[in-house]
Amino acid sequence: MDPIGILLLIVAIFLIIVLFRSIKIVPQQWNYIIERLGKYRRTLEPGPRLLVPFVDNVRAKVDLRERVVNFPPQPVITADNLGVQIDTVLYYIITKPTDAVYAIDDYLAGVEQLTTTTLRNVVGSMDLEKTLTSREEINARLAAELDKATDKWGLKVTRVELRSIEPPLSIRDAMEKQMRAERDRRAAILNAEGTKRSSILMAEGEQQSAVLRAKGERDAAVLRADGEAKAIQTVFAAIHKAKPTDRLLTYQYLQTLPTIAQGTANKVWVVPAELTKALGGIGNAFGGSDAAAAEEEEEVEIDSSALELDAAAAAALEAAQQAARDVQDIGEGRTNELPPAPA
């Protein structure tokens, strides 16, 4: 190859290198810090940019997007002298690329150390219970302190989150026992309230049932009494309309008396005076000679080991006596009104 060809090749390679070093394409959301002969010259914005070859140099490439830094768990002592492990997550953006490059050697290491010290200051003024229940407050205080401290570095801390707070194992066991006891207490309270409510509902149901049952029994008794009254009125009207004779009334009265003495516990049967009058009526009807003696006798007591009236039989006997007297009055023509029903 001749010397002219070699020279042209060298010139072409040099021009390519110069062109490559002269043109820079800056991506979106990035800034390039340019130094000229070791001194800050300018900051390149996104897009194609021209540089002076072999004079201008890219000092740093700065990402302007919001970035997330996850720091390892940090040991922190609370106000009640309990050690906890706190894991934090930091969100920040670079607002001044020049300060981020020239104001601090490594801004990430600086942010990490600043986050650790600020976290210890904030949590150190709180006890363990408040630390566990005040994450929002801790996040806000950390974000405010870090944003103020990192402003001179060209950074803006947008948010700080506490990802986890881990107390000692013994404290966790005690907290779990406390929470279990609290849950048991709440369950017992709910169970007692349910039992109380169930008892109240059962008592109200029994009360309503008793009231309805009493109303039903009352209505049934009223209807039963009304029916019995109507039946007595009908029978009495029929008897009054038929105008029965003394013989017929006496015969019916004697047929009713054995029903009164029915019962295995009846020992004594007190015969009313109306029986003697009825027997006297029969004697007069059939010509018997003992009618006068029967009318003079007021009451005959028949002792029998097989007959003894109880309270119900005595009441029935009294009702029969009254009915017999009323029938006798009707036969003698002293009244035309219905006798009152026995109580």
TrEMBL record:
<feature type="domain" description="Band 7">
    <location>
        <begin position="21"/>
        <end position="179"/>
    </location>
</feature>
<dbReference type="GO" id="GO:0005886">
    <property type="term" value="C:plasma membrane"/>
</dbReference>
<feature type="compositionally biased region" description="Basic and acidic residues">
    <location>
        <begin position="326"/>
        <end position="335"/>
    </location>
</feature>
<dbReference type="GO" id="GO:0098552">
    <property type="term" value="C:side of membrane"/>
</dbReference>
<keyword id="KW-1133">Transmembrane helix</keyword>
<feature type="region of interest" description="Disordered">
    <location>
        <begin position="324"/>
        <end position="343"/>
    </location>
</feature>
<dbReference type="InterPro" id="IPR001972">
    <property type="entry name" value="Stomatin_HflK_fam"/>
</dbReference>
<comment type="similarity">
    <text>Belongs to the band 7/mec-2 family.</text>
</comment>
<protein>
    <submittedName>
        <fullName>SPFH/Band 7/PHB domain protein</fullName>
    </submittedName>
</protein>
<feature type="transmembrane region" description="Helical">
    <location>
        <begin position="6"/>
        <end position="23"/>
    </location>
</feature>
<dbReference type="InterPro" id="IPR018080">
    <property type="entry name" value="Band_7/stomatin-like_CS"/>
</dbReference>
<keyword id="KW-0812">Transmembrane</keyword>
<dbReference type="InterPro" id="IPR001107">
    <property type="entry name" value="Band_7"/>
</dbReference>
<dbReference type="InterPro" id="IPR050710">
    <property type="entry name" value="Band7/mec-2_domain"/>
</dbReference>
<dbReference type="InterPro" id="IPR036013">
    <property type="entry name" value="Band_7/SPFH_dom_sf"/>
</dbReference>
<keyword id="KW-0472">Membrane</keyword>
<dbReference type="Pfam" id="PF01145">
    <property type="entry name" value="Band_7"/>
</dbReference>
